[in-house]
Amino acid sequence: MRRSEHPLLSSFIVHSAVLCGGTHGNERTGVTCVRRRQGEEPDREPSPDLLPRPQQPETFQLTPVIANPKAVHLNRRYVDFDLNRCFATEDLSCQDWPDYERQRAGVLNQRFGPKGGSDPACQLLIDLHTTTADLGPTVIINEEDLFARLLAAAVQAELPQLRVLSYFAAPGGKALRDTSAGAGAPGGGGPAASHHPGDYPYLAEITTSGIEVEIGPIPQGLVRGDTQIMNERIVNSLVKTVDSWNRDTPLEIPETLLVYRFTGDQDYPRDHRGAITAMIHPDFQGRDFSILAPGDPLFLDFQGNTIPYQGPGGLRPVFINEASYYEKRTAFTLTEEQTLPLVPR
Amino acid sequence: MRRSEHPLLSSFIVHSAVLCGGTHGNERTGVTCVRRRQGEEPDREPSPDLLPRPQQPETFQLTPVIANPKAVHLNRRYVDFDLNRCFATEDLSCQDWPDYERQRAGVLNQRFGPKGGSDPACQLLIDLHTTTADLGPTVIINEEDLFARLLAAAVQAELPQLRVLSYFAAPGGKALRDTSAGAGAPGGGGPAASHHPGDYPYLAEITTSGIEVEIGPIPQGLVRGDTQIMNERIVNSLVKTVDSWNRDTPLEIPETLLVYRFTGDQDYPRDHRGAITAMIHPDFQGRDFSILAPGDPLFLDFQGNTIPYQGPGGLRPVFINEASYYEKRTAFTLTEEQTLPLVPR
């Protein structure tokens, strides 16, 4: 697959891209990756093999940015509101938000977007995240973003253990990821109930194409060597892929991409006051991407009783026991496997 | 070993004890344990085996307490200052601290101590913690606390994988754990430089005897089934041991206790501005309690260079990559093995 052969993207070139870390201030892997690339005196000697040297783009400009500097300084996910839920079009159109993150969203959108614009300042945004769940190396794309599909496939060709999560708007217009239950949660649950179909509130949506890197498990607030190395390998692969694309060099990728598509979130059991009354069952912890069968243990309540799964078969859970999703009323998210073409037929 | 045979503790009986969770507000395991025991309608049916039913004390009163409710509500380690560094005698004697935790320390000390008093309200304090480091199930004691040694040994007899960390004041009066480098760090590093020899600032010091439970690895801000079950098994074992002691029933314990004694903290490499320039080396991550030899990889700097260990041989690191210790300038803590008698000779 090469650019000039793509029926829809043959004239799409990435002139300028942005690499965001610290969108969540306590996810330090992305912060470290960005700071390595912001260094005033870049490392001119080849790095030893263990930690890959930052791949320098040759055909485009890559701007490393700390997305939420105040939260990074405080080592918290956010100050007032989850920054990665601030980019719905309607929210961006409001000029007088009192809170820090929604003001910051406006700044980022102005500088690198604007979202939905015909000629955004950047054509690609790479947003770096981590999770306490056992996702392994993962990227998240909007299925409707055809260039993101190609990027994900190219990274997966280099790092076969990479998995691809996706969200999209169903033909009828209903967003398949049902996060409405969390919309009123502190700091923002899922997209606001009023968001337009396919109008997602994520930072990666403000440029023409976008991709989130998501690696776990890692606790919040720390840097781990293994996570950092994997993060850097993914970013380097993305940079090399964009260079190849811009040069019209063929990408060595298969014809289809397997994605795990979000279908809905599952909350923890709660009492009448809203307090959580159970934890993820020890047999379920870390089973991200495994098929869930009716009757499988899901939760262990604080009396010691096992609560089994009672939903449909064939789905695969992800983000099991993500620390920041307690407030979003999400114990885990269900996905279904889907095979997508890399070139529309 | 039975109480009536102990040369120093034969008349020591625990009438009242306190079980503290949430001393650090984002360590949710202890919070969950305490809330299970605060339940207004205690579970009267036997719990299924997986999550142990809370052992009810039969010879003493056990008060479950959320030590730092404001930090628990905020899901942060602390609001103004690390509560578990607020209990140095001099700090407790000051009545007009402006910050929340030092006020709270005064309240806890009044209610369950006072520290150093001849007749404290509680004779035992169990303080529940977790860590992002790979400690496994661990308890921390003050070596000079002879009853805590017996408690640790009794729990270890039931749970052989349990390890015991200890701190103590050397005969010359110098506290062996050198935490002075962190004394000026935000939220409190180690004990204030002015603390008296053996006068530790930890919550577990305010009653006649005290013990900290410390389990890892677990990210901050979440509850994990495996950690919760282990926490509850340790607490239950402590409760049973105290009942046996009070009743003068023999404790089935060996004659000595192996402890890992704190000898000093190691900071991360930093630049001239104080910014961290390296991470724990991937080969060192999770090697808590393993012997460290000169030349072993310790850090991987952000250029990719390995920084080896250059200190003396024979020591064992713990708290490797604990998230809350970045601000305390502690990448890990070194310990040395020590065999202590359970009955003084």
Give an overview in words:
Chains A, B: Residues 37-47 have a biased composition (Basic and acidic residues). Chains A, B: This is Aspartoacylase. Chains A, B: Belongs to the AspA/AstE family. Aspartoacylase subfamily. Chains A, B: Its cofactor is Zn(2+). The structure is a homodimer of 345-residue chains. Chain A is α/β, with parallel strands linked by helices and 345 residues long. Chain A has a single domain, classed as 3-Layer(aba) Sandwich (Aminopeptidase), CATH 3.40.630. Chain A is 21% helix and 21% strand. A 9-stranded mixed beta sheet of chain A has the order 2-1-3-6-4-5-7-12-11. In chain A, α5 packs across α6 (225-247). The longest helix of chain A has 23 residues, at 225-247. The radius of gyration of chain A is 20 Å and the shape is globular. Chain A starts with 15 loop residues before the first strand and ends with a strand. The interface between A and B is large, with 41 and 42 residues.
Structural topology:
Two copies of one chain form a homodimer.
Chain A: E1 16-21, H1 28-38, E2 61-66, H2 69-74, H3 89-93, H4 100-112, E3 124-130, E4 136-142, H5 146-158, E5 163-167, E6 209-216, H6 225-247, E7 256-266, E8 278-280, E9 297-301, E10 306-308, E11 316-318, E12 332-341
Helix pairs in contact in A: 1-6, 5-6
